Amino acid sequence: MSNVSFSQKEADRLMKIPGTQKGAVLRSHLAAIKNHAGEEGLAKIEKALVELGYPVTLQEVRATKEYPEAQTALISLLCQKLLGYTDADIFVQAVEASKLSFFSQLLMRTFTSLERVLKNAPHYWKKHVSIGDLECSEFNKKEKFAIIRLRNYKLHPVVCLSLAGYFVGMFRYVQPSANIKETKCIHKGDQYHEFKVTW
Ligand SMILES: [Zn+2]
To answer: Is the C or the N end of the chain the one with fewer CB within 10 Å?
Structure first.
């Protein structure tokens, strides 16, 4: 019957981790699945979420309502298991989600330079996600790189890929040549996640 039952334990573990996100962010991730894997792909994920006991659908998610932050991790894991996503697919889909997100569109409309976006990103993170502390620890205009760190945020390594995609999607609004690489990771024994943005 269910072909995702093997991940029930993992789903339960993840969904017990405290922390919430605004529906607007979750919505952009679901909308990106539709763009990336089609209606059929999205339907598979939504069905699996029902089977696992953590239902959420693109149609019903409300922008201002709070949802578990771990739901995004669960969705990414289901994309890997049911739709055969590679790491690159997870990343690209998150870039797409960022483009579809009202919140990043708003951020970009307000701040038109990469420096301003990076400076204000921690504030926007706080407004949309209840766990984790984001900071821009370095902005080097001359050498064209920035360092962002995310502390107190530990869900699942798959999230690092989607965070990187989401961040770089935002930065590309104002700096189309922006790229990103995770240089430290809490899942690899470091104190925090660290991303290096280059352009
Ligand atoms: Zn990480």
So the answer is: N
